[in-house]
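As promised in the previous annual report, we have extended the structural survey to additional targets. Below is the entry for Family with sequence similarity 167 member A.
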Amino acid sequence: MRLQDQQLARQLMRLRSDIHKLKIEQTCHLHQRMLNDATYELEERDELADLFCDLPLVSSFSLSAPLKLIGVTKMNINSRRFSLC
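The corresponding structure token record, generated without further manual editing, is:
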């Protein structure tokens, strides 16, 4: 009986660890997608600025909406004080 309890406890701990790893991977993937979107927006804005001279100047450090929603600020990006995971 004790051996079964120990085996079940190990199995539950492994499952818990696997679930935790999956959550971390999902979060990292989501954050990477948001960073890619922000980068794409900045590149697109730069390309449009090259095409049209009369566009109003926009700060190159402005953030996309998804990054603002998770609390990444201009200061965080400039000083690289945020992590992907």
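Helices lie at 2-51, 65-69, 74-79. The chain has a mean pLDDT of 77. These points will be discussed at the next consortium meeting with the crystallography subgroup.
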